[in-house]
Structure prediction request, 161 residues.
Amino acid sequence: MPSFDVVSKVDMQEVDNAVNQAVKEIGTRYDFKGTTNEVELVAEGLKILAADEYKLKAIKEILIEKLVRRQVSPKCFNYGAEENASAGAVRQKATIVQGISKEKGKEIVKAIKESKLKVQAQIMEEQVRVAGKKIDDLQAVMQLLKQKDFDVELQFENMRS
Prediction:
């Protein structure tokens, strides 16, 4: 029976490249001269330190631009609360979301079942497996999932016929 997996993966090499490009741009931009601004990739995600809230917003915009250019979705980051740092600086952490959570998996399965397509969907750890008798039905499920917004970036893997 044909099947495929719905996953949410982040290419960490592309994230690293985007962060490095953002750091270079921050270092050369005039509006950041003379202030302390940092973007650091750590194991659990990103640490952003900015001189003030305006610069934090600008850093996040630069970072999102670089991520999109490298075909990494900005949805893969969950930004934490802004924290005050020393000398009026602002700090924020962003965690990288890998895999599909149980709640999101249930939403995806529910959306597939509501579509009335003749396929079965089941949650397997951090992915959702969709199986059906016709490949056309599986492709319809892919189109359905691309149209809906689940607040996570979805990829389709392991298409078997």
